[in-house]
Amino acid sequence: MFRRQIITAALALALVPMGAALPAQEAVMSAEEVENLLTGNTAAGVWDGVPYKSYFGPNGTTIYDPADGDALVGKWRVNPKTGQFESFWAAVGWTAYSVLRTDRGLAWEVDGQIYPFELVEGRELAE
Question: What Å distances lie between residue 12 and 2, 17, 20, 96, CA to CA?
Answer without folding.
Answer: 15, 10, 12, 42
